[in-house]
TrEMBL record:
InterPro entries: G_OBG, GTP-bd, GTP-bd_Obg/CgtA, GTP1_OBG_dom, GTP1_OBG_dom_sf, OBG_GTPase, P-loop_NTPase, Small_GTP-bd. SUPFAM superfamilies: Obg GTP-binding protein N-terminal domain (SSF82051), P-loop containing nucleoside triphosphate hydrolases (SSF52540). It is found in: Mitochondrion inner membrane. Associates with the mitochondrial ribosome large subunit; the association occurs in a GTP-dependent manner. Keywords: GTP-binding, Membrane, Mitochondrion, Mitochondrion inner membrane, Nucleotide-binding, Ribosome biogenesis. Signal peptide: none annotated. PROSITE patterns: G_OBG (PS51710), OBG (PS51883). One of its GO terms (molecular function) is magnesium ion binding. This is Mitochondrial ribosome-associated GTPase 2. It is a peripheral membrane protein. GO terms for biological process: mitochondrial large ribosomal subunit assembly; regulation of mitochondrial translation; regulation of respiratory system process. It comes from Nannospalax galili.
Length: 407
């Protein structure tokens, strides 16, 4: 007899990865849990202490920024089709000693809708497939039995997803739990029982189910956060996000290190949380598609306030602020006038200290917060300012009878 041998380690890993993916494929067959949720928490760094612990399991190398970018999708064209309605049945009651039992064909069930639902656990549109078909209703059957209706197919999308059809915005799923019926299921057909009338006691007519609605939708993700960081490459945006939150975006001394938005959570007393988004650097001329272009600014469009991060160690740092504001204006008029703070980073460098008085003189003392993301100097001042901005935002929203966004 051959003794049982333990599986080699590599096979175990392969098996485990298969086990990890298999349920997400099967869920497509079940109503209610239909999405192949790629629940990888690495899709977007979320700086919640517990989350980050799960993000990088010990012994596993974190994914490089380049690989992470492949998982971050902020556009998607989706073809959605509602489920078809089931057909009605044409048949007659048949029973011993009951010759003319009458029509008893049941109606077909309605097709299931396809519904987009904003889910906070989903961080990018990468888990959204290119097409979805709703569940069809069952056909009607004998004895007036109606067919079962098709279950609703829920497609989970990130909070902040815009739904467009033919260039027009048809829905904005900006709050967790928001839903949008992307495609209606077809109505079920009628069985011949439905056509029973005084002048027609034995109808044989029955109707087929209607096909489900078919639409081509464009999904566009606009990250939702309280504060958005904008700055030139290498200004230290990612370093700052690392310093104030538990998010772990890559930091390096070359430009365009960050290739996808990151959201970090800054915890405050009383379980208050403030979401801060770090987006790729923009450069002068970005509106002419220089650097990474301005496409990423869509991720700060919804931010309630902005952090202009400038490198204080460079000569004439105020020109960075002017250039950033100019690029923002080119992207969307009025964007640069949103509530903001100017963060003068790299205060630890000697030349930076020399530039500070000039910057403050040009932009105003109150507006500039000089700090060092590297040494942590003066970070509290930024945290306090963020809190003040957040509180005034909450007050304004409540004043207008709206629920403020909370992460
Ligand atoms: N001395 C000093 N260096 C800093 C400070 N903050 C960031 N750096 C350095 O500046 C370089 C760029 O930092 P990042 O945080 O990657 O800059 P970024 O703005 O995110 O850059 P992109 O992602 O390319 O847009 C890194 O080498 C950091 O170590 C600081 O406060 N002081
Ligand atoms: Mg960065």
């Amino acid at each position: 007899m051959i003794p049982a041998r333990p599986l080699p380690e590599r096979s175990c890993t392969v098996l485990k990865s298969l086990m990890k993916w298999a349920p997400s494929t099967w869920t497509g067959l079940e109503p209610g849990r239909l999405l192949p949720l790629q629940g990888s928490s690495r899709l977007l760094s979320v700086g919640c202490a517990d989350h980050t612990k799960h993000q990088e399991p010990s012994g596993k190398k974190p994914l490089s920024e380049k690989k992470l970018k492949r998982h971050f999708v902020d556009h998607r064209r989706v073809l959605v089709r509602g489920g078809n309605g089931g057909s009605g049945m044409s048949c007659f009651h048949s029973e011993p000693r009951k010759e003319f039992g009458g029509p008893d064909g049941g109606d077909g069930g309605n097709g299931g809708h396809v519904i987009l639902r904003a889910d906070q656990q989903i961080k990018s549109l990468s888990s959204v497939l290119s097409q979805y078909r709703g569940f069809s209703g069952e056909d009607g059957s004998r004895k007036n039995c109606s067919g079962r209706g098709g279950a609703v197919l829920y497609v989970q999308v990130p909070v902040g997803t815009l739904v467009k059809e033919g260039g027009e915005i048809v829905a904005d799923l900006s709050h967790p739990g928001d839903e949008y019926v992307a495609a209606l299921g077809g109505a079920g057909g009628k069985g011949n029982r439905f056509f029973l009338a005084n002048d027609n006691r034995a109808p044989i007519t029955c109707t087929p189910g209607q096909p489900g609605q078919e639409r081509v939708l464009y999904l566009e993700l606009k990250t939702v956060a309280h504060a958005g960081m904008v700055g030139f490459p290498n200004a230290g945006k990612s370093s700052l996000l690392r310093a104030i939150s538990n998010a772990k975006p890559t930091v390096a001394s070359y430009p365009f290190t960050t290739l996808k938005p990151h959201v970090g959570i800054v915890p405050y007393a009383g379980h208050q949380q403030l979401a801060v988004a770090d987006i790729p650097g923009i450069i002068r001329g970005a509106h002419q598609n220089k650097g990474l272009g301005l496409g990423f600014l869509r991720h700060i469009e919804r931010c309630r306030f902005l952090l202009f991060v400038v490198d204080l160690s460079l000569p004439e740092p105020w020109t960075q602020v002017d250039d950033l504001k100019y690029e923002l204006e080119k992207y969307e008029e009025g964007l640069s006038e949103r509530a903001h703070v100017i963060v003068a980073n790299k205060l630890d460098l000697p030349q930076a200290r020399a530039h500070l008085p000039q910057l403050q003189a040009r932009l105003g003392l109150a507006e500039v917060i000089a700090l060092s993301a590297l040494t942590g100097e003066n970070l509290e001042q930024l945290l306090l300012r963020l809190k003040v901005l957040h509180d005034s935002y909450v007050e304004a929203e409540l004043g207008q009878g709206r629920q403020p966004f909370s992460w």
